[in-house]
Structure formats: C-alpha cells, structure tokens
Amino acid sequence: MKTPFRTGHRPVRAHQSAQTLWIWDKKLHLSKIFWPTFIPIGWCLFIFSSNGYAQSPGGVNTNLQLWVKAGSALPIAGGTLTRWPDQTGLNTFTTSGTASSITTVVSTVNFNPVVRFTGVATLQGNRSIQWSECTAVVSWAGAANTERGTTISPTTSGTEPNDASRYFFRSGVEAGPSGYVYAGMGVDSIGFEYAAAPPANQANIFTASGVDDVLTKNGLDARVGDLFGGFTKRATVMNGIPQIGDRSTDDAKLKGDIAEIIVYGSNNATNRNKVESYLALKYGLSLGTAAQPVNYTSSAGTVFWPGLSGYQHNIFGIGADAASGLTQTQSNSMNSGSGTGAGQSARGNLVLNAVGSLSDQQFLMIGTDSASLGEETITAAIGPSVAISSLRLIRTWKVRNTHAVGNVRLTFNTSGLGLSGGTTASNYWLVTDNDGDGNFTTGTQSTFHASSLTSNILTFNSIPLNDGVVFTIITKPSSMSVLSIDCQDFTTTVQQTTALLQWTIGNETNMDYYEVQRSSNATSFLSAGSVTARNETGPQSYTFRDQLSPGNYIYRIRMVDRDGNDQFSGLRPLTIAGSTLLQIRSNPVVGNRLQLAIDLPQNNTALISIINRQGKVLLQREASLQQGFNLVTMDCSSFAGGLYFVRLEAGSERKTLSFLK
Description:
This protein is mainly beta.
C-alpha cells in the first residue's frame, strides 16, 4: 500500500494559472508550487524564475529537476521515514510497500545521515520530470556479485521487450556482464553503460549523463562496457515520474543507503565538477586519484582543492558554501574513517573540527601522500632540525586553507599502529612545514604539542593549519626543548604612535630571549628589539613597546633557547594611522569585541563597515559621533578567525584598517 507523508499545511484555494510560484513558509523553507494548488494562510509569495532555487547542489540550478538529501529526511534522530522532501518542490513522495522498512540512519557517511532501504519498499513521486543527468551518493549492502538493487528510475519503462527497464545506478547481475553498476537511458528502447560494482557498504559518487555516454565514479570515467549500444544510441533525455529504490520494471529493489540524489533535465558537463565537489566535501569522499587528480570547485567557482598528484588520497575537509546550503564543520575521510569519525584500525584516521564558525566560501582541506604510517628516525637530512634523533611518521599531509579558516581541532587515531610514543600524550607533536614543499629541513617549521591521548585518539586543540603547509606527527621525542614553548595571548595594541606587544609563555624552560620582529609585507622581517627570558616557574608575561611612524606593520616573536634553537609565533598586524581618525584598540580582537577609537574634527554621522578579504561587507553600523574622541565597539562573534578590514566613512573622511579575529 502507499503511505503518504504528513505535510501539516492548512490550505486556501488559489486562482488557476500556468505560473510557477515560490513560497517562504514560517520556518523560512523555500518551496516551489504550481497553479492550480493551495497556498497556506499567512504566507507571503515571491515570484522567481522556474529554476530560481534559493539553494542548489554546487550552486547549479539550471534545469534542476529533483534533489533529495538525507539530511532533510525525517525523523532527524533516526527511525521509520516519515518525510523526504524534494528540495525543488516538484515531487512529493509516498511509500509503496512496508513503510517501516525505509528508515533514516544518523551519522553514516562523514557525520551525515542516510535513508536506508532493505529491498522491500520504494518511494513514489507524483509529477513527471525530465531526466538527462543524475548524480547520487549511494552504497549497497551485500556482495558485489549479487542483485543489490536500484537507486532511482522513472516509474515507466521503454516498449522494447528485451531492454525496457530504465534507471540510474543499479548494482546487479545480467545474463552477460554480472556484478556491475548499470545505468540505462532511453525512450522506447534502452541503452546501458556499466561500471565495476563497489564493495559492500562503500559510499561513492556516481554520475550518469545521456550526453557523451557518461558514467563516472568519484569524478573519473568508470565505464567498463555497454549494452545495446550505450546511452547515446538510444536517447539523451527521457521523461517520467521518479521512484526511489527500484528500476522501472519493479524487479530490482534497493538494499542499501542513499545520502543524496540530484537529477538535471539537461547536460550538466560544464558545472558537473561543482556538484561533485559539493558532494565530495560533504561526505568525505575523494575525487580523482594520484594518476588523475581532480580539482574541487565551490559554487562561486573557487578551486578550494587543486588536483595534487602527490596528495590526492583520503581528501576531506570542512567548509561553508551558502549557495549549496552546506556548512560542514566536522569531517574525516571515509577511506580511513567512518560516519561517526571512528577510525578504521591501522589507517591513521584524522578528524577535523572547526573551532569557530565558518563564513561562506571558507574551506580547509587535507590530503595525504599515502606514504607508510610507520616511523622513521629524524636525521639532518629529514628534519626538522629541532627534533634530531626523534621518531616521526613517514606519512605527510597537505593543507589548503581558502579564505583564512581560523584555528581547528585535529585528532589522529593511533589504533593498530604500534607507535613508539605509546599512550603518553607528551610524546606527540604535530609539525608543520610552513613553506609547503614537504622538506622539513628548509624554510621554517611550527610545532604543536598534543593536548591529550585518550582511547587511542590523539588530540591537537585549537591549532592553525595555514594554506599550503605540509604536516606530519612526531611520535617519540629525543631532546626537544624548543618544542615545549607555549606562546599564549600574543596581542598588539596601538597607543598613539607606539605599538604595544604583549605575550605570555606558558611553560618556560631553558629559554634565552624573545626577539620581536617587524615587517611591512609579512615576508621580510627586521629585528625591533629583544626581551630576556626569565625562566621562572609558572606562566610568564612579557611586554615590548615599539615607536613607529604611520604605516601598516606585521609582528612576530622569535623565541630562542639557550642551545640556539628557535621557533616563531603567529603573525599579528598593526596600523599606525597618519592621523588619529581611526585606531583599533586591540589587534587581534579580544573577547569578540572590536574596539575602535575614532577622533572626528566635528559632529558627524559615521558609517562603519567590516569587510572580509574578498571585499564582501559582513557588517555595517551607522553611528552619530561627536567632535573629538569616540569609542565604538563592534560585535565580531559571528566571524570565523582570520583577517578582516574595518572601514570608516564620516563626511569627507575615509579610513580603512586591517585586523585579526
């Protein structure tokens, strides 16, 4: 029997028309409706183009016909499926068969849910759509050489008796080729392409298109054969009402999990990579291979992971893409991890968590060289020099940080690796090669001590992973006094024409001095002076003042121990204004409050704007200011860590300064 999902709408009848309408409900969900239909009381109507979706996969909305994602399925907490909305608003699905056999399951693919089918029931749509290209994230239960069922299909078949069924992504058995993933397109007679079937319970991104006989897996051509001449011998487009979990001949019901399905009514070759990049980031799936690396592209066209042959393994990351409706703040690679982040034994799984919020188009991605997870002894030829004779992992990881994602929390699963550091957290350090060439003997390195090691989970709390760095993990230190430097609360503050620098060392041992270095371009640094280390018990706080002429400056602290080893702090910007029109009281921001000192020659209304590095205005405030000194505070709690600009406009006065959150 067919079981309808609950909608809970109270309708009022509308006039007939051929127009497509979009409606925002009281929970700010955007839905597409067609006249004649019903309009709930108290809702406002906004008319858009027929494909003007507020959000779309990869930001690609042209001829989008169907979009279902398990994250929108109900119940959210898991259980028998009660509703799975089509994000386009075109179709409403009802259950055909035993309703309780279709369930939502939480945290199954990279902290995201799935809708699970057991080969008993299907979901039936109610409106015909045009099919040309389909992309889905799906996995099958059972052995690869058995009939495991179909992801999605039209409810109607072709008319030819021997090749009538049409569908996307069926893992099954045929009289000829068996144990493959098939896709079949056509209007009357059907043509098929097929690919190797994946192992049980392995999620992949499949795409099929009737144009150019496309059948890909994780961004690469996966075709190993065809039947009846393939797609283009039959048709490049077909029409029909969608059903999820079976093929059109109703004899291949799905046994497996669906995370997301996307259907376009026309060829999507130009923007296919955006759709697949969105899915790869969301579900912790790697596009491409070392031999055929693939870029990851955002809805805005930004490449946030360039195909890197040396690091195109186990790619995962965090990011925000508003046009896709995506905010992924926690992630691991499904190649080494799981839906819950629990790592597979001896796979060295990393889990990445954002510490602060993520802004639109911010991404932090990690890929590995897939070298051995064994240990090697650090020599002068391997580096870093501060850890000679220590042990480190042979494997390294590459970071791409787009639009200045702030500090992150990173965990590493040590289970099954038998590392020399054992269960003692103090034995472990994360080391970054800051010039990103993977050579720890050149350029500069930064080190971060593990915060804890519990149940084989090694944690590095609130660490920076800057764009381009390569990192590895030291697993058993020898003599590394420099690695125990804990520089905290490093701030720069303007006092008229003086820069006030303050920092605290949390565990000072065997230190010699702290050199304050200044730059105008963040590349070439000069010494501004030094402070002698106290080497006393407990946290030690230091202050340094630097008299400056007007200009923009960047500071860092070079920390040097008595053996000549050194380590650098993070960078801190500071601006000495040519006049006192606008000054930042604390840089970086303290307590999410940006305090601005504004000195005006006369009473005026000022417009204060906070702008990100891409020039987008994130916050504006209009303030009535008096002649002379004014103190204005801006709330920065909603911004992720990174570099921003504050702009003051007051009559003919204009001033822009940079600051760090």
